Amino acid sequence: MGSPLTFDRLDGGAAQVVRLENARFGGAEARAPHRHDYHELIWIRAGRGHHSIDGTTVAVRPGTVTVIGRGQVHVFEQGEALDGAVVRFSEETLAEPGARRGTPEWLLAGRGGRTVVVPRGEHARLDGLIDALGAELQRPADEHSPEVQRHLLSAILLWIERWYDATRTERREADDAEVQLHRRFARLLEDDFAAHHDAAHYADALAVPPAALSRALSHVTGRATKDLILDRVMLEAARLLRFTDLSVGEVAHRVGYDDPLYFSRAFKRRHDEPPQAYRDGARGKSMHR
């Protein structure tokens, strides 16, 4: 029986910036494949190499950002003379509880990662924004810290979406129809996740057969429709637990559960601990940063 995959978690907070300066990865020192319990952006300003994301080899090219979503299996197989940065962040940092369209969360769900070309004239601006996020993460936390971090991360992700869209208008990918359906689903999900936990609602609202929606989402994200809905519901629950003083029962109601006990069981399956323990742990980390 093979060894289980390592599950990497963020230490000491909800986000992290690691600068790469003439960095080298791979060879005999390469890590074994591992999953991330966070999202990761790998910005490569200079250098070359390749890594594996969900078993797919992805080239490391200068002037690109590779987006690796939570839960994906990753290993940096080879990298030489790498300059840039790695930005890691949890789902809970992306938006305020109850917020609607704030960041392009569809971008983080792509199967096998997504590599986006950064226009040459934007390299310095991206470096500056990443440096600003890194500086914010290093300063002592105060009541403004979560909001400032969210805004900086949102700006980075929205820039990446802009660059992705600019590339897509120039060259259509073979799976463009599936990607666009996924984006429409993600926008609808932001509006309806608390009221509708059933996959049929989203297929009806998007005017596509349920099987077609399921195939498209599975192709793009590797996840079933129901799983994506539940992920969004539990993400909102985690945000409410972390950033508000609502009771567990009130959080359950906000995300569409009439039975707090049923909600608690579902939350524990997703986060490996019950809601109150999650809240205590998340707030404890913030206090000791």
**Compute the gyration radius: what is it?**
19 Å
- Principal-axis shape equals globular
Q: What percentage of the residues does DSSP assign to strands (E)?
A: 15-25%
Overall average residue pLDDT: 84
Number of strands: 8
Largest sheet properties: 8 strands, mixed
Distance between the termini: 39 Å
Poorly predicted tracts of residues: none
Indicate the structural class. alpha+beta
Task: Please bin the fraction of helical residues.
Answer: 40-55%
Order of helices and strands: EEEEEEEEHHHHHHHHH
Number of helices: 9
SSE map:
Blueprint: E1 6-8, E2 15-26, E3 34-36, E4 39-53, E5 56-60, E6 64-68, E7 73-89, E8 114-117, H1 123-138, H2 145-170, H3 176-192, H4 199-206, H5 210-221, H6 225-243, H7 248-254, H8 260-271, H9 275-287
Parallel strand pairs: 1-3
Antiparallel strand pairs: 2-7, 3-7, 4-5, 4-6, 4-7, 6-8
Describe what this molecule looks like in 3D.
There is one protein chain. With 289 residues, the chain is α+β, with helices and mostly antiparallel strands. It has helices at 123-138, 145-170, 176-192, 199-206, 210-221, 225-243, 248-254, 260-271, 275-287; strands at residues 6-8, 15-26, 34-36, 39-53, 56-60, 64-68, 73-89, 114-117. Strands 1, 2, 3, 4, 5, 6, 7 and 8 form an 8-stranded mixed beta sheet that branches. The chain is globular, with a radius of gyration of 19 Å.
